[in-house]
Amino acid sequence: MKSLVSQLGALLLGCLVLGACDQEDKLSRIGESIQSPRDKVDSELHRLQFEASSVKAESVYSSGSTTSLLGEISDPLYGDFHGEFVARLRTAPRFKFAREPLGGKIDSVKLMLGYERSIGDVNSEMKLSIYEVKGLGTMAYSTTPEALEQYRKPENLIGEKHLNISSNSFWRHYSARDSVLTIALPIDTKVGQRIYDLSKEKPYLFDTQESFDKDVLGSLLVTPTTGRGNVLQVVSTALVIYYTYTPDKAEREKAKGDKAKKPVATEAFISTKLTGHINALSNPYSDVLLVPSDEYFYIKQPAGVIGAIELKKEQMARLLKGKAKINIGSDWSLADAQMQIDVKNPKDLLLNPPSYMLLIPKDSVTSFFAKGLTERSRAATSYLSSRYSVSARFYNFSNIARLVTEHLKHHARYSREAGWSVDRDLELRLVPVDREITRNGEHVQTIGLNEFLFPSFVRMDKRPEKLQLEVVSSQFSQ
């Protein structure tokens, strides 16, 4: 009896070992004991081989943002970076000063630049110059510093300042809860005086953005003239006009103890998403990252070098090999496809990896950002990575099975003679993103995804064994 049990045990073990060696592992029929004979599920384990490379983004940074980069840094490994920008300031129809400037004179004007983060040495010295430019016409959201050279003329210069970012920054408060680190650049008082005079003499010039840009205030070009060692991510731009005025009775009563001090009022013109923005960025030597490598692929921003992830159609056709005609997505689907992309950055690198990556079909990148979508609103085909951590050093995408399933729904073809085929490779893009979130207790939810506009770099492992993905297919039997 013991001999018979031993033989049966050995036979069962042998069957399990042989089954595990199949290229496409057949899993047991799930839930046979509780499902009806007409509703069984056949599951298989597959291994898909993805490929990766670096490509130049077809379009970098969609319009409709007020974020800019300002400054210069030098990276000994992957090249220098220079950033400057042009901001248009929003008009207000029939604008007028809230108070009457004392003697009709403006006291001072400042350009306030609020920034969220910086890279490099905040104690380095830099000189910033501001030019008023007109006649820009329609320009792309992103251009090069060379394209703006014609506007950097002495007669257009309206302000400049040597500064140390660390000692010249202060917190500017917008409300009790909102504030941003800010630097203030002096602007020629004549600019503010012109705005005041025109508001009195020709208020109709403020009625349209076109007349405001042409006859009141042109766009402002802000550029680093000297100094290399720091870059700011500018998120707000405001021209602020300061003036003293004659106080009313209530204000005079309040200021009894300081009769010599005149009250100061301000008027502000700001850059918004509606007025447009031009980023002028220079990333020399970035093309070397596009040279094919057997080990790595690269992502560098704002150079526009992003990742290309590809799954060949032959790989996907193997998923359906030998199957009869089925309804993909309902009769048959994929699940449990975890993708992890490892980071292998060199030592002594100045630039850091972005916090998040978005994995998305190549054809959807432009419309995704233009429409303000998130991974929640396009759940079937866009996947947000886990947050990058220096202790873990990888980007993880929780389950991209539906992405492959959706591709097969549109590109898998069946014929009685040849069986299943797939007519198109799955081409994806790996794009760095900024994530805006809201919190509800422990729950964190994405409310916005924007292209990541900040100097960053990441080198990723593309060896075949690192891009092999296990995925489970399930077919419902009738």
Describe this structure in words.
The longest helix is centred in the N-terminal third of the chain and has 19 residues, at 2-20. The chain has eight helices and 28 strands. Strands 4, 5, 6, 7, 8, 9, 10, 11, 12, 13, 14 and 15 form a twelve-stranded mixed β-sheet that branches. Strands 3, 17, 20, 21, 25 and 26 form a six-stranded antiparallel β-sheet that branches. The protein has a four-stranded antiparallel β-sheet with strand order 1-2-28-18. The chain is 15% helix and 41% strand. Residues 1-24 and 27-36 have low confidence and may be disordered. The chain folds into two domains: 26-56 and 286-477, no CATH class; 68-275, no CATH class. By secondary structure, it is an alpha+beta fold. It is elongated, with a radius of gyration of 30 Å.
Low-confidence stretches: 1-24, 27-36
Mean pLDDT figure: 87
Give the beta-strand count: 28
Distance between the termini: 41 Å
Q: Structural class of the secondary structure composition?
A: alpha+beta
Number of domain units: 2
Radius of gyration: 30 Å
Main beta sheet: 12 strands, mixed
Strand content: 35-45%
Shape call: elongated
The percentage helix is: 10-25%
Number of helices: 8
